[in-house]
Amino acid sequence: MVRADEFQIPVLRQAFSVSGQLKKTRLQNKTMEDFLNILIEEKLSSVTFVMDYLQVDFDGNGFTFYIWPVVTVENIEYKFGDSYYRDKLCSLIAQIVKSVSYVDNKEIVIHFDNENKLFLSLDPNNPDIIVEIATFKDANKNWYVFQ
Description:
By secondary structure, the protein is of the alpha+beta class. The chain is built from three helices and ten strands, in the order H-H-E-E-E-E-E-H-E-E-E-E-E. About 20% of the residues lie in helices and about 30% in strands. The strands form two sheets. The protein has a five-stranded antiparallel beta sheet. It has a five-stranded antiparallel beta sheet with strand order 5-4-8-7-6.
């Protein structure tokens, strides 16, 4: 009998090897910000909480966050563990992405209406990082891994 965790490990390794190819080919003539700009004018269509990570989908393009993002709604920041964190994160569902900013090894910020946003630290020295910070998959199944 094969355990679920034994079955999933090769699948994940395969996805990550594809991400390495993506970094070399798809991003060759683009910046990461250009790549992430495919999110602009897309709506946040789902938020999925999985035991120790988070998935957010933007009409087929999506992130899996292994570090919990900071959520800003109505100019108030909410961090994982704060009261209303999940409620405020879910309140972003159906909001349209206005812009995405990316600073290598520092941050990704997804901006919505009314100054609402998701902020993800890309600091490689974060003690919460086990293997990677996040993965991004576009609607064409191209992957990128943030480590």
